[in-house]
Amino acid sequence: MTTSALKIDGVNQVFDSPNGRQVVALNGIDIIVESGEFVSIVGASGSGKSTLLRIISGLLQPTNGQVLIDGQRVRGPGMDRALVFQRDSLLPWKTVIDNVAYGLTLRGVRIVEARRTVQRFIDVAGLGGFEHHYPHQLSGGMRQRANVARAMAVDPKILMLDEPFASLDSQTREIMQAELLRIWEATRKTVLMITHQIDEAVLLSDRVIVFSARPGKVKRSIPVSFERPRSLSLKRSPEFTALVDEIWQLIEDEVRASLSD
Ligand code: ADP
Ligand code: MG
Questions:
Q1: Of 135, 134, 94, 126, which Cα lies nearest the Cα of 111?
Q2: Which residue from 11, 12, 15 has its CB within 8 A of the most atoms of ligand 1, so it is best to mutate?
Q3: How many CA atoms lie within 13 A of 30 on its CB side?
Q4: What is the pLDDT of residue 200?
Q5: Long-range CB pairs of 196-202, under 8 A, 24+ apart, other chains included
């Protein structure tokens, strides 16, 4: 039997809310992600998507169920997983290259060697020539690329992205989608991404998982079989639009349900 890169096995999450009632954030989540697969999760706000990434990160123990990475149960945070948020978490007093190298230095790699190792990720992220810039000297899109490069530089088994481009303007976001597509096609990491943009999910993913509104549950898992390499122009094809529409219809009711509580 082969082990999957990521197995989420019967995960439930219940929170105590300030008014004394309990909030069921996740209800019986079973997800398997194979090695090298790019999977996205879409769903209404409050459907437990970020909570699931916190559980996979080991920052939160699920109320029930378990998460396995390469067959090993997650018991806490670890270097085998990297999480990228909407806002970059670059250190403002460090240059781009030292930010990208930071995770390796935390592991005890000497800075000179770490800089050498991460140059490839700087180049893949299209930041060649900006190694010695500080975060405030970069555009929002470049900062977020440096942030992704930093996550990839520690060579995680699983890269998780939580609405990574949500704070960018729509043109920068489109460019970042193409960049992430290119970076992923060059590295073939196992990726789990959360996004509100259905077209972003379809463009990038091998599979899109639709969550139902709270409590979050897997409503449907939809394979995306467009050939790779893909480019932004795929978004203009009728097959692409049809798939985006199909997914949007699946979540429309869920979004409405979540707005009415
Ligand atoms: P999403 O990322 O899909 O928008 P979240 O995972 O952030 O959803 O939240 C899911 C639900 O769990 C929401 O109702 C949220 O208020 C609740 N929640 C998240 N974290 C906590 C917490 N630490 N304590 C109590 N409730 C929480
Ligand atoms: Mg969230």
A1: 94
A2: 15
A3: 2
A4: 97
A5: 196/42, 196/45, 196/163, 196/166, 197/165, 197/173, 198/42, 198/244, 198/247, 198/248, 198/251, 199/235, 199/240, 199/244, 200/40, 200/165, 200/173, 201/40, 201/42, 201/247, 202/240, 202/243, 202/244, 202/247
8-state DSSP, 85: -
Q: Rounded distance, CA 210 to CA 218, Å? A: 6
Of 110, 83, 80, 88, whose CA–CA distance to 98 is shortest? 110
Q: Is 190 helix (H, G, I), strand (E, B) or coil?
A: strand
Regarding pTM above 0.70, the answer is: yes
Residues paired with 66 in a beta bridge: 9
> In this structure, which residue's CA is closest to atom 15 in ligand 1?
46
Quick check: helix, strand or coil at residue 158? strand
Phi, psi dihedrals of residue 130, rounded to the nearest 5°: -115, 15
**C-alpha angle with apex 218: 216 to 219, nearest 5 degrees?**
105
Q: Which residue has the tokens 């009415």?
A: 260
Rounded Cα distance, 42 and 163, in Å: 10
Query: In the Cβ-directed half-sphere of 34, how many Cα atoms lie within 13 Å?
Result: 5
Total length of the chain: 261
What are the tokens at 230? Answer: 């893909």
Residues within 6 Å of ligand 1 by CB: 15, 17, 23, 25, 45-51, 214
The tens digit of pLDDT for each residue in 166-208 reads 988 898 889 889 989 988 998 899 999 999 999 999 999 999 9
Structure tokens at 185: 């096609």
